[in-house]
Design goal:
By secondary structure, the protein is α+β, with helices and mostly antiparallel strands. The protein has a domain of about 260 residues: Pantoate--beta-alanine Ligase, Chain: A,domain 2 (2-Layer Sandwich), CATH 3.30.1300. The chain contains 10 helices and 13 strands.
Length: about 400
Amino acid sequence: MTIRFQNSSGRKKQQGVALITALIITSVAVSLATLIIYRQQIQIRLSSNINTLEQNYQYAYGMEDFAGTILKRSFEDQPDYVSLNDPWYSETGLVLPITGGLMTGKLFDLQARINVNSLIRPKIEKKTTVTDNQNNDPDDPLADLKNPDKNQIKEFDDIATVTKNRLKRLIFSIDTQQDMGPEDNFAVVLRDWIDNDQNNGQSSDLTEENDIGNGAETPYYQSLEPAYYSANTEMISPTELRLIKNMKEEFYTAISNEISTLPILFGKEPTKTPVNINTASDKVLGALGFTPDAISNIIEVRKEEPFATLDQFKELEVVRNVLISENNPDGFVDPLDIDVTSQYFLLKGKVEINNTRLFVNSILWNQNGRISVIMRDFSNPQSINKAVN
C-alpha cells in the first residue's frame, strides 16, 4: 500500500480559493442588502412625499374656498362696484402658518388688466337706425325700390379694434426703444397667435388693410428650432406670450402682469370683460389713453372714494376732457369696454410643507355672489422656459 501526502502549498491554494469565494458571496450579500435598504428608503421617502403633496392639494383647495368666501362677502357688502378699498384686496397678501409649513396667497382683479383675447371678439350690434319716407305704401311690395330714401344703418361695438389700440399704447409704454419692433406689428402678431386662420396679419373682418403681412402664423413658427404651431385659439395663460414672435424675456416680465387671458365666449354666449377703472394700474390707465397727469388724478380720487358708477367716473374733469363723445369726437379715450365692477379674479399662492411646494394659480368667477373656479393651475409659471431671446 502506497501512502501519498498532500503538500502544504496545495492546501494553502484551496484555502485561498475558499476565502475568495466567501468574500465574493459576502460582498454580493452586502450589496443586495444595501440595495434593498436603499430602495426601502426611497419608497418610504416617496410615500412621505406623496402624502405631503396630497396635504398640499387639500390646503390649495381650502385656499380657493377661503378666497371665494372673501369675494362673496365683498360682493354682499358692495354689489355695485369693485375697488381696491374692498375686503378682498390686500397689497401684501395673506401669510398663514400651517402644520409643518406655510401658506401664502393674494387675489388680483383680472379686469384691472387688458384682455388680449378680446382682439378676436366679434363685433356686437349696438343699435339700428331706420330712415323711412312716410308716403310709402306698406302694402306695396315695390316700396323699397320706389323709395331711395329708405335705409337701414347698423352700428356695432367694435371691441376688437378698441383692444388693439389699447394694447398698442401698453406695448409702446413698456417697449419705448421698440426692441420688439413697432407696437402696431406686435399687436397684429399677437392677434395672429389667437385667431383661427392662417392668414398672416389678416383676420376675417377684424383687420385693417395695413395689417396684412405684419403678423406671424404657423409657417413662421414651423421655421424655428424647435418648430411648433400657432395656437389659433384663445390664450389660456399669459405664459403663452413666451412663444410669440420676437418675444424678449424682459418684455414678457413687464407686460405679463398687465394683461389677462379671459374667455370671450362661454358656450355660445359672449362674456363681458371690460377694464375696471377702479382697480386698473397706471400702465393700463395709460393704455386706455389717459395722460400721466390724468392718471395721477384718477388714482388719487379713487383712493379716497371709488367710482360707484361709470357716469360718476365720466364726470371727473380730467376724464370728461379727453373722453370720446358726441360733444368731443376728437377725444383720446374710447369709453367702450370700461366699467366699475369685475367678475374675474386671480388667486396666486403657494403651499409649502416640509420639502414639498405647490403653486396655486386659480381663476375665480363671481356671478352675483356665486363664486366658481373656472381654471386652476398648480405649476410655477416662472419655471416655464422656451427659447426666449
